[in-house]
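Minutes, project check-in
Item: structure for the 87-residue chain
Input as provided by the requester:
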Amino acid sequence: MRQKLRIITSLGKDFQERNNSELVAIYGNFVNRALQLTKKYWAGVVPACGELQDVDRATLEEFEGVKDKLEALFGCLLSLEKPRKKP
């Protein structure tokens, strides 16, 4: 049983490391593209936010609560990594 727990723990740590690395790369790419497009199409100045359209409101509504749900899911994954105390 202890061997299985060690494997699960190491898999969880490996998963977290790979996932974090991938997320950092994706986020960096997103930021770079946003900056490059801002530079190309708006002379490096972020345009003022206009009035929200229906599609904007629908998107905001769809993503409401996502942060809390993700934190709960990640919390469950991280709890698997914590070594259990010996009885």
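Outcome recorded: The two ends are 14 Å apart (CA to CA).
No further action items on this chain.
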